[in-house]
Amino acid sequence: MKIFFSTILSILLVFTDSLFAQRTVVSGNLENCNACKEIFIDDVWGETEVGYAPINMNGNFKITAHIEHETICSMHFNDENSTVIILSPGDSVYIKLDYNNLDSMEITGSEGTDYLKHINKNIAVFTEKENDARKAYETQLEIIRHEKKNYIRSFLQSDTTLASFILLNEFSPEKDFELFELLVDALKNKDHTNPLIDHLSSYYDELLQTRNLLNIGTLAPEIKLHTANGKPIELSDLKGKYVLIDFWASWCVPCRAANIRLAKIYENYKKYDFEIFGISLDRDFNEWKNAISVDRITWLQASDLSGFDSEVAQAYKVSSIPFTVLIDKEGKVICTDLRGEDLEDKLKEILIK
Predict the structure, then answer these.
(1) CATH architecture for segment(s) 2-109
(2) Model pTM?
(3) Could you say which of 11, 88, 155, 246 would form a disulfide bridge with 70 (CB–CB 3.0 to 4.6 Å)?
């Protein structure tokens, strides 16, 4: 009988040791986020919660989880901001995090995460080269486009034939509205009985309505979409902040180049109650998500993956991208289609007083 109980006890001890070996502990400290009250760790592939814990007033936390296999995890807080760590059974991990720059986290006790950070550091060199090449390409392309448009503009201003209207495809109705206005008025005076001119006149009236829709001081249309993580978000949720609504897409080369400048602008001005609300006109979820990662986008992103057929794009009469709308803390339009240096100058004007 003693032998029997001794055997059972040995089995229980081995079983208990095995369970204990599977226990993974993640502790650490989070800086610069007084609003963060909890930290969550999710299994990326299984889409299951690994564990969570409260964050105390000093930013300290400790999560104890049971992990059976090495797994890729997403560590996030009570919002969209997140970072990736790799955990193995029995790991005892300590993480030091800065909420404003999660990529700079310091971590000990996770061999997989150390290896991932090493790879990402090397890949970042190539990503920076890609961004530089994209920026150089876009700069040169803009110079050529500018020269081309100047030539066409001078032609349009001196010619008012019906054929001239075809050349307007080279221009943005939002930014070059005066050219549409000039030609429509001239053509209507030239032949007001032509049904094609009448059709163009109707198109002009629609453009005029669009301009009135986003006139300075008007309330920006509500936006209701979902983030890349599937969480619902509304423009009205951001009331109390200055918001740049940025329409873009992963396949849009000028948009991707603009993201480089936007990243710097966001980093410099987010502390002044400023937020960017990116609206992707992508149709492919993976391409959109990959662009967010490659361009290191940390501001809000949402989409219904309907391209230009998106209800939001139609509500804002978006006909070309990139296209931006800057609104104030009450949701009223300040200006439209500002980018780069012009956008930064406007933000300095309204945010830094």
Answers:
(1) Sandwich (2.60)
(2) 0.48
(3) 88
